[in-house]
Amino acid sequence: MSAPTTASSEPYIHIAPSVMCADLCNLETDIRELEAAGINMLHFDLMDAHFVPNMPIGLALIEQLRPKTDAAFDVHLMVENNDFFVDAVAEIGVQQIAVHVESATHLDRTLSLIQAHGIKAGAALNPATPLSALDYVLDRLDFVLVMTVNPGFAGQKVVPATLRKIAECRAFLHEHAVDLPIEVDGNVSFENIPKMVSAGADILVAGTSSVFQKSGSRLENVQRIQQAITLGLTKRKNDGYQLSDVV
Ligand code: DX5
Ligand code: ZN
Predict the structure, then answer these.
(1) Residue identifier of the C-alpha nearest atom 4 of ligand 1
(2) Per-residue pLDDT tens digits for 188-234
(3) Mapping DSSP to helix (H, G, I), strand (E, B) and coil, where does residue 182 land?
(4) Whether residue 187 has its Cβ less than 6 Å from ligand 1
(5) 87-104: buried (b, 16+ CB within 10 Å) or exposed (e) per residue?
């Protein structure tokens, strides 16, 4: 599946707000504001408090939200029992699922299970995990999730080496003739977005440092993200990713 493009053949960069960072006490209102700002994809972090020491949202929240919005559901599993959660969210109705290569005992089988459900399958890589972990599952992938923070918590700072990793992931996929979308997740801030997009990111998981920043409304923040995306696409077109972009 190659990265989507818009009518003007500009690459289309998805913005996927991270629901764990939303106002969970007024979630439906928050979702309506995001939809009004043009958001059509939502990122759900499912954690089991084992693979990562946190559990911000659960299956019930995804299930209750499903009938309330047409947005694509992008599920990021940070759990030990991947196959259980794959079946559970497939039952609810989601569009893509990323599983961590570090938690999947049988990664090939789990990715095949996701695709057997008719759902796009992604492999998520922690900052320290090399791209070679993807070597033998490239034919099972619909996207790659490059973690730009260590998973489990919102509000962290980007791991600097991951900016270079995004560019190296794009080159790695190109070398293997698989032009898959790259999703990035963690400190996707107004400042980092141009670097991430110029490096090759196609799906941005937006959290506390952008779409949910307290300084602006949801609409204002989405507009600021879109401006940052435009800057990144210009950089990508003109000079690609430069190591000097590392924070
Ligand atoms: C962390 C989650 C992210 C997180 C992003 O493990 O995968 O989705 O919510 O939050 P920020 O944007 O604050 O880093
Ligand atoms: Zn996530």
Answers:
(1) 154
(2) 999 999 999 999 999 999 999 999 999 999 999 999 999 999 999 99
(3) strand
(4) yes
(5) ebbbebebebbbbbbbbb
